[in-house]
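Entry 14: structure prediction run for Polyketide synthase. Input pasted below.
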Amino acid sequence: MAVLCKPAIAVPEYIITQDDTLELARRLHKDHSQLRLVLRLIEHTGVLKRHLIQPIDKVLKHPGLDARSAVYEQESKARVPAVVRQALDQAELEARQIDLIVYVSCTGFMMPSLTAWLINTLGFRSETRQIPIAQLGCAAGGAAINRAHDFCRAYPDANVLIVACEFCSLCYQPTDLGVGSLLSNGLFGDAIAAAVVRGRGGTGVRLERNGSYLIPHTEDWISYAVRSTGFHFLLDKRVPGTMEPLAPALRAVADQQRWNAGELDFYLVHAGGPRILDDLSRFLEVPPEAFRFSRATLTEYGNIASAVVLDALGRMFEEESPREGHRGLLAGFGPGITAEMALGTWTAAA
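Run finished. Output C-alpha cells:
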C-alpha cells in the first residue's frame, strides 16, 4: 500500500504580521466605504503572520505580468530544490527512485512545467512521468496526494514526489478593492511543500481510499479573472458556508471504508479560514482540537493554498502523536467548489 511520508516545508524570509496588514489596510484604503468591515474580517482570520518571497514594498507594486512571471520562475528554481531534497531524504529515497512528479501551483505559470527543470537539475531519470496541476487552487494539495495514490495502486512498486509551490503574494492586485479581495490580501501567504508517496515501505499515512466531490453550480464562487495584469482572485461571500454541503461528502467517503468520519484519530484539512474549521468541527461532530494542525498552519503561515494539507501533515509528524493503526482524513478544498479527500492509516516502517 502507498505511504505518504514526512513532508518538507519551507517558508520565505520576509514576514508580515496581522498588525502590519491592518495598518497597511488603514493607510492604503482609508477612504474605502467598507474599511471597518474589512478590518474586522482580517482580524477574525486568526492569521497572526505570513511569509513572503519579497519585501512588502515590492509586493505592493505591480510591475506587470511579465515581470511577475520572471519572479515566479526565478524564486521557484531558487527555493524548490532544497525542499525536494529534504522530502527525498525523509522518505529515504534518491531522485532516481522517483517514477512520477506531481507539481501543483496556482500562483504562477510556466511551460514546460517546473517538473522538466527539476528532472534535468536534480538527478531524476529521464523516464520520470510528470503531472503538473495548475487550476485546482487550494484543492490541489489533496488532488496531488490522490493522484499519487492512484498511480501507486496502478504501479505498486512506484514512488511519487509531490511538490506544492505557492507564491500567493505574486497575485496581489492593487486595483482590486472588493471586500473579498481586500480580505484575501490579509489571508494568503507564500510557502513550498514536498512529500513522497512510497509504493513500498515508509513511515507515515498509508493511503486507503480517495474521492472527489464538486458542489453543483458553484464554479464562480472561487475563481481567477485572467487579465492582462495577471490573476485577479474572486471570492464569493458564500464560500465560508461550504462545509455544510461538503461534510456529507466527507462522511460518504469514510462510509465507503466503513469508517465513521466523526470518530477518526486525526484530521488534516485545508485551512481556508477559521470558519471552515469551526464548521467542520460542528458538522462532523468532532472537538475543535481535532483540527489543531490545520489551525496552526493558518495562524503561523496564513492560507498557503495547495501547501496547507502537507504543512498540517508535517505538524502531525513533529508532534509524534499518531500511533500504529490510527485512522485519519486528509482533504483539500478549492475552486469548483471542489473537495479532494483521502483516508489513511498511520504506519511505521518495519
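Notes: The domain at 204-347 is CATH 3.40.47.10 (Peroxisomal Thiolase; Chain A, domain 1). Will compare against the previous run tomorrow.
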